[in-house]
Amino acid sequence: MNDGLKKTPMSMLDKDTRIHSFDEVELGYTKEEAIKEASRCLQCKNPMCMKGCPVGHKIPEWIKAIKEDRLDDAYKIISEVSSLPAICGRVCPQEQQCEKMCVRGLKGEAIAIGALERYVADNVSRSLEYLKKESNGKRVAIVGCGPSGITCATDLAREGFDVTIYEALHRPGGVLAWGIPEFRLPNRIVDEEINLVEKLGIKIIYDTIVGKTIDLDDLIKEYDAVYIANGANKPKFMDIPGNEANGVYSANELLIRVNLMDGMLNESRTPIKVPKVAYIIGGGNVAMDAARTIRRFGSETHIMYRRSHEELPALGDETVQSEEEGIIFDYLTTPIKILKDENNKVIGMECIRYELGEKDESGRASINEIPNSNYEVKCDQVIYAISSSSYNIATRDSDILHLKNGLIFTNEYETSIENVYAGGDTVTGPMTVIKAMEAGRKTASKIIDKLK
Amino acid sequence: MYKIISNNLIKDNVYMLEVEAPLLAHSIKPGEFIIIMVDSMSERIPMAVYDINGDNIIIVYSVSGASTHELKNATSIHSLLGPLGNESSYTFNSELYIDKKVLLLVSGTGIAQVNRISKRLNELEIKNDIYSVDYSIFDDIKMIEKDNLRDLIKEYDSILTVGSFEFMENVVNISKDLNKEVRVSLSPLMLDGIGLCGACRVLINGEIKFACTDGPEFDGTKVDFDSAKKRMELFKTEEGRRYLREVEGNTFTGGRA
């Protein structure tokens, strides 16, 4: 038993190396570190951590196995509920879920559950095929090879379903591949984990836009069930003058250039425009990802956020790492105009300052403009990371009911058409990777119950 | 991976590429477009589909930069994404054009974007003519001199124009002046093609639209050509450097000795 009140720290790339490299920042536990951390677990009879996990990981069981250095057992226990531990261990917001509930956290810090999950995934020789049941002859089509679609596909394939995923892009992973940067989640890890689940017999068909290349109606006819999990990724631009200027981007554009198209590699032919000074507008994880990406090209990088440090929607770790990497945070301010020269190039922004007001119903502080607080900043890039909405190319010409905001209407993952399900961002609007996975898992169990 | 059936020089620096892509060939409608990646490290190149031949699509392109240079030398195609964008309003809303005369006015490889629209209009028995300005890739396409555009446009009810932004702006101005309906098919800078990034945004009537998912065809009188032209400059330096590297070896030093 380790009585330490603090988490066993994980080794990280030092910050000077970090800002010149796209290598993963968090290096993972060594065996000694993992066993030391696992020994902090109280092995509660009534484990609160499990209640905090959207997919119901048997956390104390596999932590015990780590402690006893039975890694293959730990992996087996994890695999009962999750086929993507290398990804989840890295990108799940554990601090808001399992670790938030951990009783260790009442006095001191919670167990580093995410770090331990990752340790297992990175250090065992993995295979899932033994979990696959005999084929049941039922066929399911999944629209979108992101976290939700992959999770649903995996759960179904294990139960003996014949699953086909249709993906628009040329590589798998959805936001895991094009959105989350290499230094947080290497594409190699995504590819490896998806290769493993493909061995369960899942087929992935690329370059295929459901609603364009093939009709949703054809899938509905051809398959016993369809799960729509194509995300909500239409980027928003602020409604201010100057958005057409050269040097204004969505965070998605930057991330796609660098992550999906490997823009950080010399052999990639997708161009990146490196700014001298970049301002990222927004305070969520996507803002941090964009800022940390552009920082790695050597630019002076600012994050401009309307509220203060306390209200940043991004995860704590990401904020801390962004600060360590020399990203400058400009709080309580927002642009009202993008300034450009005669060649349409961004040269700066006109901004105003805010002060925090009273908290609204959601508990978030309101913001009030400070009169006559206008000021200008100089920069040559402005990158918006202010949320996104949905197009629903797959469903917009179908009979499926949509909400006014374009999201798909569902009742417990069932759409208005029988045997057609939807989940993840396409239903909820932009949320986390694990929320999307949760929807995939719950949909899979509905499909299993219905079709079995 | 997609199989290249042929990839031949047809005139000057213009090539015709035929690729086997059954799903795409059977789903793509006139006016829609595709994005090509030659290999996994290539840039994504938006392209019009000139024609369909059974299970194959046919593309006409001019070699003008690093990526089209690469396409010219390709032995297979890594990714072929489509159909992207929306069907041309001339074929989608064809009932509006039953008694009209439509002019398809292009420059350079703009012909690739209108060829299938014209074929479909012919099937629908809607009168239409293709004219190419000052130069034509194909010998059977009528040519018109830039200075005579006004006289030509006069003869038609509606004009669809495809070409450089400068050219389309000129056509739009003349058509507006003559009170003719004028539409443009835009091919601005583009990245994913499915609406994730907004690189292809254009101002239409002061509002941001994405050419990839809202277009590529728009009412020509509503397009802000000024900002659209300037956005085309965005990656010129980067692209230029890559092109020099491709064709001349890595000799570009960015002005440094």
Features:
heterodimer, A: 452 residues, alpha/beta, Fumarate Reductase Iron-sulfur Protein, Chain B, domain 2, FAD/NAD(P)-binding domain, 3 domains, five-stranded parallel β-sheet, B: 257 residues, Elongation Factor Tu (Ef-tu), domain 3, Rossmann fold, 2 domains, six-stranded mixed β-sheet, five-stranded antiparallel β-sheet, 9 helices, 16 strands, globular, disordered C terminus
Task: Please give a structural write-up.
- The complex is a heterodimer of chains A (452) and B (257).
- By secondary structure, chain A is α/β, with parallel strands linked by helices.
- Chain A has three domains: 109 residues, Fumarate Reductase Iron-sulfur Protein, Chain B, domain 2 (Orthogonal Bundle), CATH 1.10.1060.10; 165 residues, FAD/NAD(P)-binding domain (3-Layer(bba) Sandwich); 152 residues, 3-Layer(bba) Sandwich (FAD/NAD(P)-binding domain), CATH 3.50.50.
- Helix content of chain A is 32%, strand content 17%.
- In chain A, the strands form four sheets. In chain A, strands 3-2-1-4-16 form a five-stranded parallel β-sheet, sandwiched between helices. In chain A, strands 6-14-7-8-9 form a five-stranded parallel β-sheet. In chain A, strands 10, 11, 12 and 13 form a four-stranded antiparallel β-sheet that branches.
- In chain A, a hairpin with a 5-residue loop joins strand 10 and strand 11.
- With 257 residues, chain B is an alpha/beta fold.
- Chain B has nine helices and 16 strands.
- The longest helix of chain B has 13 residues.
- Chain B starts with a strand and ends in a 9-residue tail after the last helix.
- In chain B, helix 2 packs parallel to helix 9.
- In chain B, strand 12, helix 6 and strand 13 form a beta-alpha-beta unit.
- In chain B, the strands form four sheets. A six-stranded mixed β-sheet of chain B has the order 11-10-9-12-13-16, sandwiched between helices. In chain B, strands 5-6-2-1-7 form a five-stranded antiparallel β-sheet. A three-stranded antiparallel β-sheet of chain B has the order 4-3-8, with no helix packed on it.
- Chain B is globular and about 50 Å long.
- Chains A and B meet through strand 5 and helix 13 of A and helix 1, helix 2, strand 8, strand 14 and helix 8 of B.
